[in-house]
Design goal:
41% of the residues lie in helices and 13% in strands. The protein is of the alpha/beta class. The chain has 2 domains: 7-50 and 294-394, Alpha-Beta Complex (Aspartate Aminotransferase, domain 1); 54-290, Type I PLP-dependent aspartate aminotransferase-like (Major domain) (Aspartate Aminotransferase, domain 2), CATH 3.40.640. It is globular and about 60 Å long. Bound molecules: 4'-deoxy-4'-aminopyridoxal-5'-phosphate and glutamic acid.
Length: 398
């Protein structure tokens, strides 16, 4: 019937959330390009590298041999074994591949099933911000309430127990960590993780630790997981995946590991939502984890060059403050000294004047305003063109 809308039938918890700012910007970049506009996209966190050939070959081989059916909902046993081996070698963390690891279709889904497994309506979840755009919205989808723990650029976005304690209530159930961090490029120090471990144990909280950028760390920085602390290992769901380390964003493959009791709950959510990750995709994952790691090293070296070049260029622009990232492939300059109303206005202006698409810091929650995020995962030519164009126009501002 004309005039009648079904909008009021949308679930309140969905109506209360927003579209993913990063995905909306990726759509915007595509449609500007399709419309014939020459834009440089530094918004998306999608590596421009091709997926390593041995990974593609493994998935192709699986398709050709007809490996196209359901797998165990926990994921292929050989992939779980490869993940367990990696966790042991990387962090000294022992997880039973039979019961304590679930392969998921993407790291994003791994975060989602982890949150769904532990949250009830009314629970609160602490999220140090600026943070990746999806955590808060996922918490809302689970019926719970995200509580930002704003970190401060002046002290390098350092996390501390005091900051966490300040946001604790009787409703606090979990904390979401992400190191190396999207968007700041920060790698949490062992002392900060020690604080998280003590705090979560003292208040009986679950830690969801998103470690998707674990391979992308520079200089003397070392990725450290909260699971490495014994008192935290028993309450941590650690998430990682293949998108960033192996340039496999379109494959949609990730995993969660954690103590058996929590993982039983994670498995139930996965079984009743997607079932499991794609069978032949998982064969690619086995090849990625067990095969030649030199492509990963080469990609990290390239991101390192991008980081150093971008940092030097941005620091030349009067009014910009920019920290050198420790890890991940983003740089997060403070543009608040340039006179824009806010980071959205700055991002909008950069599209118009420099034809460069960046993500406004406001997308990453409290603490992000005043910054813009530039992705360094594009090709060297794209990164150099985008950052040069952007620095040129920003340098002309009074
Ligand atoms: N966590 C963070 C911090 C990310 O930046 C991303 C990028 N999309 C993801 C999780 C999800 O990765 P995936 O492609 O495996 O879903
Ligand atoms: N993680 C990437 C980003 O932050 C990809 C988009 C998304 O999944 O949010 O740009």
């Amino acid at each position: 019937m004309k005039g009648i809308t079904v909008e009021h039938r949308i679930a309140r918890r969905v109506a209360s959330i927003e579209r993913s700012a990063t995905m909306a910007l990726a759509d915007r970049a595509r449609s500007l390009k399709e419309g014939g506009r020459k834009v440089v996209n530094l918004a998306g966190g999608d590596p421009y590298f091709a997926t390593p050939k041995h990974v593609v070959d493994a998935a192709q081989g699986a398709l050709e041999e007809g490996f196209t059916h359901y797998t165990s909902s926990r994921g292929l046993p050989e992939l779980r074994a490869a993940v367990a081996n990696r966790l042991q070698l990387r962090s000294g963390v022992t997880r039973d591949p039979e019961r304590e690891i679930v392969i998921t279709p993407s790291a994003k889904h791994a975060v989602f099933v982890s949150l769904m497994a532990v949250l009830d309506p009314g629970d609160e979840v602490l999220i140090p911000t600026p943070s990746w755009v999806s955590y808060g919205q996922m918490v809302r989808l689970a019926g719970a309430e995200p509580v930002s723990v704003p970190l401060c650029a002046d002290d390098g976005f350092t996390l501390s127990r005091e900051l966490l304690e300040a946001k604790l209530t009787r409703k606090t159930k979990a904390i979401v960590l992400n190191s190396p961090t999207n968007p700041t490029g920060r790698v949490l120090r062992a002392s900060e993780l020690r604080d998280v471990a003590d705090f979560s144990a003292a208040h009986d909280l679950v830690v969801v630790s998103d470690e998707i950028y674990e391979d992308i760390v520079f200089d003397e920085n070392r990725h450290c997981s909260p699971s490495e602390f014994p008192e935290c290992a028993e309450r941590t769901l650690a998430v990682s995946g293949f998108s960033k380390s192996y340039a496999m964003t379109g494959w949609r493959l990730g995993y969660v590991s954690g103590p058996q009791k929590l993982m039983n709950a994670v498995l139930k959510v996965q079984e009743h939502s997607v079932g499991e990750a794609g069978s032949f995709i998982q064969r690619g994952g086995v090849a990625a984890l067990t095969g030649d790691q030199s492509p990963v090293r080469r990609m990290v070296e390239q991101y390192n060059r991008h980081r150093e070049w971008a940092h030097a260029a941005l620091c030349q622009v009067p009014g910009i403050e920019c920290a050198l990232p420790d890890g991940a492939f983003y740089i997060f300059p403070d543009v608040s000294g340039l006179g824009f109303l806010d980071s959205d206005a700055c991002a909008q202006w950069l599209i118009e004047k420099a034809s460069v698409i960046v993500t406004p810091g406001s997308a990453f929650g409290p603490g992000g305003e005043g910054h813009i995020r530039l992705s360094l995962a594009a090709s060297t030519a794209t990164v150099e063109a985008g950052i040069s164009q952007l620095c040129d126009v920003l340098s002309t501002l009074d």
